Amino acid sequence: MNDSFRLLLFADNPVVWAILGLALFCYIVQFNLILGRCGREWERQVATWLKVLPVLLSTLPLLGLLGTIVGLLTTFRGMAISGGLDQQMLIGSGIADALITTQLGLIMVIPGLLLLSLIRYRHREHCL
Fold it and tell me: Which residues are within 8 A (CB) of 27 and not within 5 positions of it... i.e. 6 or more apart?
């Protein structure tokens, strides 16, 4: 099963949607700043977003950890309810499903941090 199809299996997970939505919002803001023309308005916007973007980006891995905790709790609840069913299969698939949110949070923050570095450089060098 390829990764893009596997991600569709988690479409009912609200934490996955929160990570994707927040990352998309950050990327849109960052690309608008990168593509913007230098000037007073741009400088004002960059000064504001350079304070906000690091906070927003730092929540992506934390949301991933939240999704992992929720997934593990769901797995343990399923183990408690199932009793004598195949717990090894339940644990293996449940932990794999839980860890996808941590992976997604970490994957989504890396491009955001790189774009943030580019914006900081451009701001520091006064729109070269």
Answer: 111, 112, 115
